[in-house]
Amino acid sequence: MELEIYFTPVKAPVFESKTEQKRLGEIVDFYNETGSFPDLENVKIALFGVDEDRKALENTGCADGPDHIRKHLYRLFPHWNQITMVDLGNLKRGHNVEDTYFALKEVVAYLTQNGVVPVLLGGSQDLTYASYLAYENTGRVINIASIDPIFDLGHEADELNSRSYVSRIILHQPNFLFNYTNIGYQSYFVNQDALLLMRNLYFDINRLGNVRADVEETEPMVRNADILSVDISAVRAADAPGSFYAGPNGLSGEEACQICRYAGMSDQLSCVGFYEYNPRFDIRQQTAQLVAQMVWYFLDGFANRKQDVPDASKKDFAIFRVLVEDYNEELVFLKSKKTDRWWLELPVNTVSDKKLTRPQYIPCSYEDYKTALQKEIPDRWLKNQQKLM
Length: 389
Description:
Elements: E1 7-8, E2 29-30, E3 45-50, H1 65-73, E4 85-91, H2 97-113, E5 117-121, H3 127-133, E6 142-147, H4 165-171, E7 177-185, H5 192-200, E8 204-207, H6 208-213, H7 218-223, E9 227-231, H8 253-265, E10 271-275, H9 286-303, E11 317-324, E12 329-336, E13 342-345, E14 361-364, H10 366-373, H11 379-388
Parallel strand pairs: 2-4, 3-4, 3-5, 5-10, 6-7, 6-9, 7-8, 9-10
Antiparallel strand pairs: 1-4, 11-12, 12-13, 13-14
Helix pairs in contact: 1-9, 2-3, 3-4, 8-9
């Protein structure tokens, strides 16, 4: 596949190094106006921009975001040597938005199938739908996590846009979405019908207050995802004013960076997108700097991946069995000897859908283990078992 036909080059940032250590922009292979398209052999990360905002409700102008983010990202210092990263430039804007979706789907599919993690700088968040379609022919179900103040369900009659793309994913046939996780929704933006729908689908929805009370609990949420979609309006306006939807409440910049690092550490996550940044609303490029730092933390997490996903041997895991007598269930917990991260095992006899080829281990936390010790079954176990019945 000739990826070059889908991209336009960008001007590679030029830095005057005043220290012995090089900045990120000096070690990334760019597709620029004077050079050739990057070679993807042995590449682990491919960053590119998507200049698309025709379906951005009220936030027109976010298509201009990628180059502003690059300006600040490539000034940062890398603290790792083992990541080979390229910048493919900006995805060409299609004649219509469906053309852009098609191109993005093809690019993400090619990269993920070749073991390269795409890092998308958007653009509007409806581009998540095109990234989802890239997994259609993988023969397995996938999970999506979204950092977002709302659920982006829209209404039944709505066309696909940045505020309704989740509904399009849910309704797409054939459907290969197993789980959707929202991180940081704000209750006053979400109606009761939307909450009921999410609960009836056994999706994981996490209020902003709960997330901020214990941000470490977001680690299993993103560890269970194949795709992470980040709406920058999930961060409070004091830290990220650069979006039409920026508001007084939301995650702090530090919390957003921490969650992105967790995502980078996930061995399962294979695509991440940062959306809705709009330079027209930004103040002194503050939001561009924050998104750049969120990308940096994702890369830092990626550099610390340990390949500790449970398999049949379980040789790198300590096993804890908890009998919940009231439910007549024995819960099996696995704790990684490499990272101290926790998983819950689902009984094989609960799996009725033959499409679920992935080993049935649910990322969880130490808090889930403590819940089981109190003779209560963790919500994560219940929701996943109900979906597999």
